[in-house]
Design a protein that fits this description.
By secondary structure, the protein is an alpha/beta fold. The protein is built from 12 helices and 18 strands.
Amino acid sequence: MQVLVQKYGGTSVGTLERIAGVALHIKSSYEKTRYKLVIVVSAMGTFTDELVQMGLGLHPSPPKREFDMLLSAGERISASLLSIALHRVGVSSISLTGSQSGILTDEVHGNARITKILGNRIRDELSTHDVVIIAGFQGVSPLTKDVTTLGRGGSDLTAVALAIALESKGCEIYTDVPGVMSADPRVVANANTISHLSWELMSDLAIAGAGVVHYRAALVAQKFNMPFEIRYSQNPEITGTKIEGHKMESPQVIAVTSKSDQAHIRFSYSSEKIAGHLLTQGLQWLWKNEQAPTLYRSFHEKDVGVETVIDSSFANSFLEYQETLAKEHHSALQSKTVDANLAILTVVGVGFRHAPEIVRRVLSCFEVMPRIFEIKDHAIVLSVAPDQEQIYLNKLHNLFFNT
């Protein structure tokens, strides 16, 4: 049995009319390929945000288990509605929740990690149906038997993980843009579609602010050697972006992206002896809270410190966590500074550590040296004032893509 996995995001299933359109596209895909189809769906439009506001309206800090029960409802609604639409156009289908699909996770609510996909129910249903629709973003902890969610954007991860587990012929992620772009098309009018990207560069772009696909989906795909495609939901025939083990040898800029509302945090420990442990714990805390820091590095002054750039909304809780850790180890934070409300620009590509000309061109856009400037092999990270974010994003894009 040959299986193809497709994922449709919230915009693609945002209205009943769009769900009906997705059903017709799924029918066409099945008739063309005769592959059995496993469809992963997100919640409709902004419905997850609405559910969040409902929960917060009743409790400023809802129990995490109950919050997962609430938020997982959005994807189940999309899955059942799409199955109804498919039956209307004559396609045999059934909708399943994450737990019914055998998606097993750890017990962490709000940002669970997939530990295993059983998939027996999916395979059984594919023997009697042409299409099985899976509610994305969710699974179940075998330890607690509770519903868990995978973090915002987790439906991408669901799709890639299912493609791996089912040994799919392919994985197609449908979104509201024609593919991965060289910049945000809402900000840079002449942004173009990138035809191929490596898993690593896709992950770097996602961490740096490109919202096309979740960075964890790219990392899992890389680990298990699973290519996938980003395609345009409004015109599925358009060739989008293929994400695979694509290698480029010469230094090259692939895209520019940005993130708003970022905080630059610096602090140092009074004990160098435990600094390494506390640094590691801090990074683990960030990943657990779905924070992939744009910048995270240690530095030496009088003592060992850390410098990180994360979402401003997490700055205080991150520092509180670090202070608690330090006290537990009979140490203390010697100094700490928080520079909030920054915009972080990232130039993404390959070979930057050995490309002084690219670095020189990037810096030529700035009259004053950015306060944050970091060169990695795949990324050049810079800070700007919030009101200059769009200006510099366009400048950098024009520098490398309009020559």
